[in-house]
Each structure stands twice: as C-alpha cells, then as structure tokens.
Write a structure and sequence with these properties.
This protein is mostly helical. 76% of the residues lie in helices and 9% in strands. Helix 1 packs across helix 3. This is Lipopolysaccharide assembly protein A domain-containing protein. Keywords: Cell membrane, Coiled coil, Membrane, Transmembrane, Transmembrane helix. One of its GO terms (cellular component) is plasma membrane.
Length: 116
C-alpha cells in the first residue's frame, strides 16, 4: 500500500512539473480592472509566470476548502466533545456506585465479585 501511495505522489509530481514547463510564459496580474483602478488612484500589477498563477490558484482553493470544511464540521466536533465528557462522567459514577456496593464487605470477596 505504501508503494501505491508513492506511485500516486510521483505521478502527481510529474504532472505538476509538466504543467510548470508548459506554462512558463509571463503574465501580468492586476488587483483591480483598469476602469476601476482609476477611481482609487492605484494600479497594482505584478508580472509572474503562468504556472505560478495556476499552482497558486490550486493551493488557494485547497486552503479555502479546508477552512470551509473545518467550519462546517464544528457541530460534529462539539457533539463528540460533549459525548466524551458525558462518558467520562458516567464512568466516574459507575466506579463510585461499584465502590458503594462493596462497602462493608470483605476485601477479597469484593475483588472476586468485581472480577466476575
């Protein structure tokens, strides 16, 4: 199974390298359209290779997806934490009740009774 994972990673790496080599031309990225940038008196523009734009978009999409899922699953995590607290409380109560049940009995008989 480990080798299958390494094979998938290698195929993915080769695909990323192929995309990078095929898209080496320089493109200009603008924060605002030229019509809108006149209103703000700024025209931020940067020239970068196209593969950086493509890979950066993929990474940004993954990060947005991870954050979105983390926020969406908050209710399940909160419910699991609540159930874990309840389980610990019930385990303490069971231990306390077992201790009360064997109170006043011979220690050896109480141990044998607990084991069965």
């Amino acid at each position: 199974m480990r080798y299958v994972r390494y094979l998938c990673i290698a195929i993915f790496a080769v695909a990323l390298i192929a995309v990078a080599l095929a898209n080496r031309s320089v493109v200009s990225l603008r924060l605002l359209p030229t019509e809108v940038s006149g209103f703000f008196a700024v025209n931020p523009e940067i020239n970068v290779p196209l593969f950086i734009v493509i890979l950066g978009s993929i990474i940004a999409g993954l990060l947005v997806g991870f954050v979105w899922e983390w926020i969406r699953e908050y209710n399940q995590r909160a419910e699991a934490a609540r159930q874990a607290r309840e389980m610990r409380r019930l385990e303490r109560e069971v231990a306390r009740l077992k201790g009360e049940k064997y109170e006043g009995q011979d220690d050896v008989l109480a141990l044998l009774d607990r084991a069965s």
